[in-house]
Task: inverse folding
């Protein structure tokens, strides 16, 4: 955390706060000076206290420290870049992960996920299941799942039997309740639910998928998740067609209108493919 000293100094000076004032009750002025000069490291607890003196959250401080740029970390960046249909990108990520000389547990788990995705792209589901087995074994042994774990679960959800996937989704949604006051968790929750809906459609569990989609639509409206809402409208149309209900066209129109407004042509094309695949249109 030595690099953080320079950022602390810039913020402190911009607010015209003395070293004595910011360090009061936390650490000596002389030690604080050494922190700013990158001579000593600073314990996390004291860092939190210093930021409290500045009226600043850890997230804001890190954002400033990274030159006002988001940086979710290498593992999360790789998870966020998941493109199951892009074999070239998958192989590039697999090679990057294999090249790490001292991989962490998370590096190993990411490698397993990307290798499983590559296996699935070759229709080898048996190998894919074996490749992620250790991840699920670890997760099953822990009572607490953190956001990174939940992102992993979302990435491998399609490899579980549909009944198991449903139980996992319900459990994850309950655990996400603890994080509901933390920003961006609603998007993760919607991602999980929207993937579960597609899994239900693929397994022809149309009634369950419809009720899940209707709940998801309300969730997306409440949390202003309009891209997820658009996809949910289109999938509701798919489900109404499969259940021989009327008004499917209404939901197709709603979904595609939202995506046209946001000019999301890529998702429009993907959802049109889903309509052809799952309704035989």
Result:
């Amino acid at each position: 955390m030595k690099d953080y000293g320079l950022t602390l100094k810039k913020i402190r000076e911009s607010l015209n706060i003395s070293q004595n004032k910011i360090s009061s009750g936390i650490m000596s002025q002389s030690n604080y000076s050494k922190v700013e000069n990158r001579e000593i490291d600073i314990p996390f607890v004291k860092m939190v206290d210093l930021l409290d003196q500045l009226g600043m959250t850890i997230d804001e401080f890190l954002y400033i420290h990274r030159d006002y740029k988001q940086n979710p970390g290498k593992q999360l960046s790789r998870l966020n870049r998941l493109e199951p249909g892009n074999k070239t990108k998958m192989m590039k990520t697999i090679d990057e992960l294999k090249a790490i000389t001292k991989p962490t547990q998370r590096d190993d788990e990411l490698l397993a996920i990307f290798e499983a995705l590559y296996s699935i792209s070759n229709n080898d589901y048996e190998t894919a299941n074996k490749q992620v087995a250790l991840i699920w074994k670890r997760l099953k042994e822990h009572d607490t799942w953190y956001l990174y774990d939940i992102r992993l679960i979302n990435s491998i959800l399609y490899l579980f039997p549909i009944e198991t996937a449903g139980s996992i989704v319900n459990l994850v949604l309950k655990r996400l309740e603890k994080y509901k006051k933390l920003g961006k968790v609603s998007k993760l929750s919607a991602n999980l639910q929207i993937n579960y809906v597609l899994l239900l459609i693929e397994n022809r569990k149309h009634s369950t998928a419809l009720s899940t989609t209707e709940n998801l639509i309300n969730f997306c409206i409440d949390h202003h998740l309009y891209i997820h809402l658009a996809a949910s409208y289109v999938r509701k149309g798919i489900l109404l067609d499969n259940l021989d209900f009327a008004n499917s066209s209404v939901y197709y129109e709603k979904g595609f209108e939202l995506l046209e407004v946001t000019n999301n042509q890529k998702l429009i094309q993907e959802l049109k493919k889903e309509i052809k695949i799952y309704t035989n249109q």
